[in-house]
Request: fold
Amino acid sequence: MKLTNPSELKTVIERHGFSFTKSLGQNFLIDENILNKIIEGSGVGKSWGALEIGPGAGTLTRELAKNCGRVVAVEIDKKLMPLLSDTLGEFDNVEVINEDVMKLDLKQLVAEKFGNMPVAVVANLPYYITTPIIMGFLENEIPVSSLTVMIQKEVAERMVASPGGKDYGALSAAVQFYTRPKLVCRAEPHCFMPQPKVASVVIRLEVLDKPGAHVKNREFMFSVIKSAFGQRRKTLVNALSKSPYINIGKDLIIEVLDVLGIDQNIRGEKLGLEEFAKISDLLEEKNNDK
Ligand code: SAM
Reply:
């Protein structure tokens, strides 16, 4: 069975009377080369567990089953269950869970299903919830080693962007706080059935042992970052002092930048994670002292 072959995929889909639901981001992969690059990029092996979000017809799931010790795939669409029993029936190391991934307790799931195995998230993600899924894993510190995921090209570019670039923003900082991101390959719309409107990219996010910056209050730092990028054209001082997310006066912000030797006219887009961490720590300390 080769589900990257469009006519084989169509036959399976027709056999089960399945029809695509656009709102669930159902664009199934039909490019074998990209499929291999996802598996390779994920770095999984026989001792690994793989957690897949949205198996669709089971194309990626089948490859994961051949390469990993255990695969758990979470699929929201009930209509795909009989189809997946068909395409995955030959594997005894795969379990499909018919649930909305956003409603699952992923920490518990990973512990229950994989025990002490190293776990990788490997998925061609539904585009309408790419960022919430990824940030959910990272912010809740679900114990996975890496996430190798197909996502929209623009979102991937924001995740890997460095300070100063046009794509650098709150998402770059958040992703880089938790992971080392690396682009694996690009996938044009013709690699999917049906074709999406936008180009896609496979990105590998290697989860860091220690966060990308040392900060006392993570939540406050992310409020500062969100504020800094909420109004990109403003200087950091103006963006922070007018932010709806934090309540800190302009004078204090200027004082903190002064102490840290940072130019008062700087914009947030020039600052790296370490600088945001230092600014947040000092802002909070001085604000509490007031
Ligand atoms: N992995 C398949 C492939 O590469 O051909 C399908 C990928 S398709 C882009 C995304 C899949 O995610 C679809 O099967 C869709 O039904 C599923 N999905 C969408 N929203 C979901 C959710 N909230 N929880 C779990 N699965 C979801």
